[in-house]
Amino acid sequence: MHSAVTFLLFNFVIPTLGGTIHYEQEKHLANVTQLTFTGVNAEAYFSFDGKEILFQATDSEKGTGECDQIFRLRLDDPASAPVMVSNGKGRTTCSFFLNDNRRFIYSTTFHHNETCPLHVCKRDDAPKECNDRHPYLWDVFNDYDIVLDDGNGTLTFLTNDSSYDAEGVVSPDGKSIVFTSSRSGDLELWLMDIDGANKRQVTNISGYDGGAFFSPDSTKLVFRANHVKNAEELEKYQELLRHMAVSPSLMDIYTINVD
C-alpha cells in the first residue's frame, strides 16, 4: 500500500514552488508531501522501516545524463537530498530494499553496455506500433540484470544473462525475490533466493506477467498480466518482444501462491 502511494506522488503530482500539495477534492489521502521538484522521478518504494525510499530518475540536475539512475532519499530528515546510488552508467530500473533496510536490489544494463540504450521507438528497427498517433510501449531490454548492492556500492549480480530480468521485489521475510524474466522466451514471473540461487518459474501463460508484490506473510503474490487470447494477439505480442518491448494495455490483476 505504501509503495503505491509513493508511486502516485512521484508521477502525478504537479510541481509547485511550495513543499506540499493536495488536490482539494481528494478525500482519501492526507498529509500529501511533494518529495522531488526537478527531472522525471518514478517507481519509489519504501524501506521496510519506512524511513527511506528508493526511486529512479532522469534529471540533469542530479547528474543522470539521459537514462534513469537509482536514488536514495531519507524521509526522516527534511534537509536531506536524493543521493544517486547507482553508478551513472547504462540504464537502471526497479529498485527495492531488503528487509535489513541497508541492502537493496535494482536492474541495470551497464555491464553489457555503459551507454544509454535507446527507447524502442527511437531505434532504426522500430516496430510499426511506433507509428501510432500516441504510441505507448515499455522497453524490456535483454541487457537488464538484477544486482544486489550491499549498501556501500559493492554489487553482486543475481542474474547475468541475455534475457530481460527486472521488476524485482523482495519478500517481507527476506528470503526470496520475485522478478519478471524473458529467459523462457516469454515474460513470466520467476522466484529466486535472496542470494540469486534456486531460480524457478512461477507463471506459464503466453503474455506479459509482471509488477509482482508479496503478501505480508510472504506466501502469496499479486501481479499484473496481459495474457494473449488468440493467435493474432500472440503474433503481435511476440513481434514486440523481439523488439524488446511490450504494450502495457488491458492489464488484469491476479494472485498466486508462492509455492
From TrEMBL:
> What transmembrane ranges does the database entry give?
none
Q: Carries keyword Phosphoprotein? A: no
Residues spanning the signal sequence: 1-18
* Keywords assigned by UniProt, alphabetized: Signal
Q: Which Gene3D superfamilies match?
A: TolB, C-terminal domain
Q: Which SUPFAM superfamilies match?
A: DPP6 N-terminal domain-like
* Superkingdom, taxonomy of origin: Eukaryota
Cross-referenced InterPro entries, in alphabetical order?
6-blade_b-propeller_TolB-like, WD40
* PANTHER family xrefs: PROTEIN TOLB, PROTEIN TOLB HOMOLOG
UniProt record similarity statement = Belongs to the TolB family.
Q: What name is this protein filed under?
A: WD40-like protein
- Biological source species: Trichuris suis
